[in-house]
Amino acid sequence: MTPPHANQHDAAAPGWRDKPLADFVTALVAREDPVLRAIRLETPRRGLPAISLGPDEGRILHLLAASCGARKAVEVGTLAGYSACWLARALPADGVLHTVEADPRHAAVARENLARAGLSGKVFVHEGPAAEVLPRLSEKGPFDLVFIDADKGGYPVYARFAADHLRSGGLVVCDNAYLFGKLHRDDLDPSDEDAPKVPAMRRCLALLTDESLFSSCAMIPTGEGMAVAVRR
Ligand SMILES: C[S@@+](CC[C@H](N)C(=O)[O-])C[C@H]1O[C@@H](n2cnc3c(N)ncnc32)[C@H](O)[C@@H]1O
Known about the structure:
The chain is α/β, with parallel strands linked by helices.
């Protein structure tokens, strides 16, 4: 039975998912342990922006890493280490996550949080702008998964890095792919700070949907849009 007025094939149609249902499902499949919960809740209290993934998105990342048998992964945009924690937990004991963070204060908090999570031996926080750090990580590839969650203008460069350094069957995952609801807008005022990010995100998605590079690409319709593609 479909909800009233809903076409089950129409992504924009209203569905069953209201807040009580969403909360129930989060508690069921994306329950945070005390460490993850503390990292997420303490992030704004420590003066960092509250822009980490939510638990459901963390679980999706964990599932994607587990489903491709990831051992070696890269993350662009660490913040306080919340998504790094989800991702690293999906890797085997000898797995490695290289996570890149431009802001030294964020990197310091992330190192602390990852130590608290017992993940210091598995997650390496590389400090600096991703465009400078990623080339230095090339030699550590090929990678099984690249997760992109940093400055949106840089996404095409980071997606290119993923295309060049993923093994066949590896995954690239891009958060905020709806670009705050503006991805489809051609009428943004040039003074809108997101206006220059629209062509950047579209170039990133053009790469992910290039079938000579990626065999399959889908948009997971989280609130922010999470684009995923499988390297050919
Ligand atoms: C949305 S937050 C990352 C959230 C994190 N992935 C999580 O869910 O816990 C984006 C982070 O990217 C960092 N960042 C922004 N531009 C960057 C760049 N050019 N290179 C590396 N990191 C960058 C920001 O400082 C910020 O900490």
